[in-house]
Design goal:
Length: 486
């Protein structure tokens, strides 16, 4: 096994390449370094299970799935010190990639599947598992042809915030070990903090500032409410997300609670005897939370759907360019003839995977009892949405590290409802059918977004894309699912 003599990335790792310039990763294509081993896969699966639980909790609690890959990258550096033979950097990439699957699959599950229980459709556990499994497969399969465009051909053009952080942690191994110790200490402090809050109620988990006279007056007269969760998880999530993403979320909350809710109340109070759809009561009689649920929430859904439409339009050029690159690479020779750091899984494997997934999805949709036309349309919609949203997710992750999962899913639900309703799909069967499609699409774009982060990390370091894609495909279809709400 050849040794890696440098512990820093090349100077052109984060900058666009000049004419004739090439990027040489930390581990050269000709180096023989341990990558897919029992250690890397075993620890990766273990971390996937642990962070699946954490991600499910965070998503169900605040609607924001925990980004697991960054803390996992810190932990794997610490785990490397437990062995006489320290884990190679490529093994650490595999461990981080496998563990990171937790957040992506969980996001696809918790953002859609709870709706089946809320609607009292009582899905069988095997049905929910299949929805996640099919979505995970489609996300991986549709993302792989886009790899060369997003990872190699556009080198230095996208910031990849999350991939950059993971790469820096893995490369600076010695610093990563001290960070692992710091992460454990922070976990213990957070555990003690939440223990006193949730068990002994030393202070309130939910902070409402209406104990201040001015704030209470604003809440009564202008429906301006100011409150937030004060548990350790919420406080730490903002730090993990970063200042920019946290400020965007805060700005959305400010607009919703300090502008839209008071504005709707100020207009609606002039009509004290009439209710305005979709609410059943007059606005003048509503509290701030009721105005938010009845009106502002739907405004947010519309904004998300509009953003999804613009994302699809912008991605058309990206899809065309990425597939042109994939075709050129295939024409130059077989996949096995490419160098190790540019070798994907075979094209025939991709095609067979898509065909197998489509057949399995047809059988699943047919078990729900709709007509043949509805089944075919459902399959086409799920494949089209998964295909185009894979590029939208990859572009969003590469640019801002935030995956527009909710927006794309809402757009899927809206369009699917409009189309399939014209073919007679309605009632409980229609609700289940639509949510099944939405669950598959949501999981697909969530997995594809997380996968492009891992592939970019592997590109900078020098991993084998085919190895990363294999473990991602296996783990995306077998990672533990969160339990349904009781």
């Amino acid at each position: 096994m050849s040794e890696i003599k440098t512990k820093s990335l090349p100077e052109n790792a984060y900058t666009p390449l000049k004419a004739g310039e090439q990027y040489k990763p930390l581990v050269a294509a000709g180096d023989s370094v341990k990558e897919l081993t029992l250690r890397s896969v075993g620890w990766g699966v273990f971390l996937c299970v642990i962070f699946t639980i954490a991600s499910a909790y965070s998503g169900l609690k605040v609607g924001q799935v925990m980004e697991a890959a960054i803390p996992i990258s810190i932990l794997v550096i610490g785990l490397a010190r437990l062995y006489k033979r320290r884990s190679t950097i490529l093994e650490n990439v595999i461990m981080t990639g496998i563990g990171g699957v937790s957040g992506s699959v969980v996001a696809g599950a918790i953002f859609t599947l709870p709706a089946l229980y809320i609607l009292k459709l009582d899905p069988h556990p095997l049905q929910t598992i299949f929805i996640c499994l099919a979505g995970g497969c489609l996300g991986i399969l549709f993302l792989i042809p886009l790899r060369r465009y997003f990872v190699r051909e556009t080198h230095g053009q996208f910031p990849y915030p999350e991939a950059t952080a993971i790469t820096e942690v893995l490369v600076t191994g010695e610093k990563g070990g001290s960070q692992a110790k710091l992460l454990i200490e922070a976990t213990l402090i957070a555990g003690v903090y939440d223990f006193f809050v949730t068990t002994f109620s030393v202070w309130k988990e939910y902070v409402d500032f209406q104990f201040i006279p001015l704030v209470k007056t604003l809440a009564l007269r202008a429906k301006v409410v100011f409150s937030f969760d004060a548990i350790a998880f919420i406080l730490g999530l903002g730090y993990v997300m970063g200042l920019r993403s946290s400020m965007i979320l805060c700005a959305g909350g400010f607009l919703a609670n300090f502008v839209l809710v008071p504005l709707i109340w100020m207009i609606g109070r002039h009509f004290p005897d009439s209710a305005v759809y979709p609410a059943a009561a007059a606005i003048s009689q509503m509290s701030a939370s009721q105005i938010f649920r009845s009106y502002v929430r739907f405004i947010g859904v519309g904004a998300i759907a509009a953003a999804g439409i613009f994302g699809i339009i912008k991605s058309l050029k990206i899809v065309a360019g990425s597939f042109a690159i994939a075709v050129r690479a295939f024409r130059r020779g077989k996949e096995n003839a490419l160098e190790r750091t540019d070798r994907d899984i075979p094209v025939m494997t991709l095609l067979l995977g898509v065909i197998f997934s489509a057949v399995a999805e047809v059988l699943f949709l047919a078990s729900l009892g709709p007509s043949l036309a509805v089944i075919v349309l459902g399959l086409i919609l799920s494949l089209i949405f998964s295909f185009f949203f894979a590029s939208v997710a990859a572009n969003a992750i590469a640019t801002t590290a935030r995956n527009p999962v909710s927006g794309m899913t809402m757009l899927t639900i809206i369009i699917s409802c409009v189309i399939l309703l014209r073919f007679g799909l309605s009632g409980t069967t229609g609700m289940f059918f639509i949510m099944a499609i939405a669950g598959m699409v949501c999981t697909a774009l969530s997995v594809s977004g997380q996968t492009i982060t891992d592939l970019k990390t592997g590109y900078w370091i020098g991993s084998t894309p085919a190895a990363q894609e294999k473990v991602k495909g296996i783990l995306a279809t077998s990672c533990p699912r969160p339990k349904p709400p009781s």
